[in-house]
Amino acid sequence: MKPRVLQLFASGVNCDRELRFAFEQAGATVVEHHISTLMAQPELVRDCDVFAIPGGFTYGDDLGAGRVLALEVERFLADELQALHHRGGTLFGVCNGFQVLVKAGLLPNVHGVRLSLTWNTSHRFECRWSRLKVEEALGHILPVGSILPAVSAHAEGQLVLAEGAADVARLEQAGVIALRYADASGEACADFPHCPSGTIDAIAGLVSTSGRILGLMPHPERNLSAQHLPDRGAGAWGTGEEGLAFFRGLLATAKTPSLA
């Protein structure tokens, strides 16, 4: 039986087709539901293995990136999403979806750590290819130390922590830093343009201690073949197989029995 992905849709989502295609190419069955439908029928979450939030600019990000959708998710879906997670399901958010997971309190859920995502240090929208170094916390999905090329396309991707370096240490200790921006040599790097947001400690993605709630700012769904790469697979940006390997690994984390 194919893994089942429930993909959320809301006003301002604009990366849904790419994400759906990536999941389908990785072997999943994907259904989409608008947030209004899910708020009225939150039990629909029970019939999936993976709950995914695509990128975009939901509700225009008028109150902050992902803030309005995060309030809806927290108010109407929190119980069902927690139950899905407890059953062995996976929650995933990319770009705006990552912002929603953070602002809904689903990531990183580390005691004493307060964080948010805000404007890039360049104070503008950044769209460029990025290299993401896989940290130990994501070793169940991709090889530790490997590079996942992905497209950064965000204005509010800077991860900020209330206590700065002290909170980074807490995240490290909890084992929830999934990905870091890297330079061409594959080393973690917080310098622009390798790290387009200027985020603290080059953090590009977070994962729960269970390994089954994952969010990242760049878009791996835009890298599914060598033809997607900026050098068309010449070697400087990988082979084009990394994105599909990421989604296959992500689907493999979900082991949810159907309640239907």
Name its key features.
260 residues; alpha/beta; Rossmann fold; two-stranded antiparallel ribbon; 25% helix
Folded structure, characterized:
The protein has 260 residues and is α/β, with parallel strands linked by helices. It has one domain: 3-Layer(aba) Sandwich (Rossmann fold), CATH 3.40.50.880. Helix content is 25%, strand content 23%. It contains six helices and eleven strands. The chain has helices spanning 16-25, 35-40, 67-86, 96-103, 165-174, 242-252; strands at residues 4-9, 29-34, 50-53, 90-94, 115-118, 126-134, 147-154, 158-161, 177-182, 203-207, 213-216. Strands 2-1-3-4-11-10-9-6-7 form a nine-stranded mixed sheet, sandwiched between helices. A two-stranded antiparallel ribbon has the order 5-8. Strand 10 (203-207) and strand 11 form a beta hairpin. Helix 3 crosses helix 4. It is globular, with a radius of gyration of 17 Å. The relative contact order is 0.17.
Query: Briefly, what CATH class?
Result: Alpha Beta
Query: What is the architecture at the second tier of CATH?
Result: 3-Layer(aba) Sandwich
The multimeric state of the shown protein is: single chain
Helical residue percent band: 25-40%
The mean pLDDT is 96
Structural class: alpha/beta
- Shape, please? globular
Count of DSSP-assigned helices: 6
Number of E-state strands: 11
Provide the low-confidence segments as ranges. none
Main β-sheet, in a few words?
9 strands, mixed
Calculate Rg over CA atoms: 17 Å
Strand content: 15-25%
